[in-house]
Structure formats: C-alpha cells, structure tokens
Amino acid sequence: VGTSGAGKTTLLNILGGLDSPSAGDVVLCGQNLSQAKEKQITKLRNQQLGFVYQFHHLLAEFTAQENAAMPLIIAGMSNREAMSKAADLLERVGLKERLGHKPAELSGGERQRVAIARALVNSPRVVMMDEPTGNLDAETAESIQALMLTLRQEIGTSFAVVTHDMALAQKMDRTLVLERGGLVER
Ligand SMILES: Nc1ncnc2c1ncn2[C@@H]1O[C@H](COP(=O)(O)OP(=O)(O)O)[C@@H](O)[C@H]1O
Ligand SMILES: [Mg+2]
Q1: 134: Cβ below 6 Å to ligand 1?
Q2: End-to-end CA gap in the chain
Q3: Residue 133 falls within a domain, yes or no?
Q4: Residue 2 within a domain
Q5: Which of 78, 134, 176, 177 lies 20 to 30 Å from 183, alpha-carbon distance?
C-alpha cells in the first residue's frame, strides 16, 4: 500500500524484471537480474512469475481458454496440453461455462478471473498483482478477493499485491507501506 505516485507500480515492475533499478539488485529464484541477460529474464518471468493488472489485458481475438493457455504455449507446451490445463484453471476460478467466450462477451469480474487463471496456469512461484480489484464494483471485488485467498492456499503460490483496499491488505500475511522511497512494515 502507499499513496498514489509513491512508486508501487514501479516497484512491482522492478521486482518482476520488467524495469531495472537505478541502484541495488533484484534476486529472483536465486538469480540476480542485473547480471542476467534479457533472454534469461524473459524465461524466468514466463516460468516463475504471473502478473495481474487493474485492467485485464486479455487478448480480444482469443477465447478465455486460449488466453489462459497463452503462457504455457509461449513456454513451448503442446496446444492440447496447454488448453487442457487452462480449462482446469478456469474451472477453479468458476468459469467452467465460459471457456469459449471472448473477453468482450465476459463481465468485468469474469475477465479478471480469466486474468488470474492466466497468471496461475504455469504454477508460478510468485504472482504480482497491481490493483487487481481496482476497476471492479465492491461486490465483484469482494468475490475476486475471496477467490485470491482460496487460490493462494490451494496452490501455494505467493502473491505480491498492490492495493488501495485496506480490507484486502489486512487479509495478507504481511502489509508493507511504500513511503518516501522506502518500505515500512505496518
Ligand atoms: N517510466 C517512468 N519514467 C519516469 N518516471 C516514472 C515512470 N513511471 C512512473 N514514473 C513516476 O514515478 C513515480 C511513481 O509512479 P508509480 O510507480 O506509477 O506510482 P504508484 O503505482 O504508487 O501510483 C511517479 O511520480 C511517476 O510519475
Ligand atoms: Mg500504480
């Protein structure tokens, strides 16, 4: 958590190897990103990390199932296996009946569920979430938050979540405040 402009998105981008720090190192799964080549960072990001943003960033031309399968296809898995894993994940997030729908045919909450399924499909070590419920109405946000907490327990993946929602922040194991360029434990 932290005020707008405090640097939360910048920090997540640096942690996820999408941006590089002007000072200091990021060590991810034992690998120092400042010493890694772009290709290695891309591979690490694809295999060990998942990302969820405020806006779903699903590909409009592809179905929910294809969107959720994308990280696996990019990682080189066969289409059939990737689509089958994507279907499993979509079922877990409550979208069993929506596999063949494109993003435009889904509600805001359903799109965010697809985005969460996509982020988790490759069983990442960490999922970075930047305001994952920031664009949803209160009721939908609450159901997505409940889903996040369930999945975190079931799948055993760590979530690093940026949020304005203090209720969500309080449900996490740790809450850190980003202020004046530093992190303080709350
Ligand atoms: N790519 C960039 N280059 C330079 N400054 C940036 C860039 N992205 C964000 N900033 C600035 O860095 C600060 C932190 O931004 P951001 O990480 O988006 O904050 P938050 O997510 O906490 O609202 C802001 O002052 C913003 O204008
Ligand atoms: Mg931000």
Answers
A1: no
A2: 10
A3: yes
A4: no
A5: 134
Structure tokens that stand for 70 in this block: 């994308």
In the reported structure, the alpha carbon of residue 96 is separated from the centroid of ligand 2 by a whole-number distance in angstroms of 31
Point out the ligand 1 atom lying closest to the alpha carbon of residue 13: 17
Query: Could you read off the pLDDT of 76-121 as tens digits, one per residue?
Result: 999 999 999 999 999 999 999 999 999 999 999 999 999 999 999 9
Q: Strands 176-179 and 158-162: what pairing?
A: unpaired
How many Å lie between the centroid of ligand 1 and the Cα of residue 3? Answer: 12
Single-letter residue type at 77:
M
pLDDT tens by residue, 53-63: 988 899 999 99
- Ligand 1, atom 6, residue with closest C-alpha: 10
Asked if residue 7 has its Cβ within 6 Å of ligand 1, the reply is: yes
What CATH number does the domain containing 72 carry? Answer: 3.40.50.300
* Distance set, CA 68 to CA 22, 33, 108, 151 (Å): 34, 27, 16, 16
Range of the domain at 59: 8-185
User: Average pLDDT over the chain, rounded to whole?
Assistant: 92
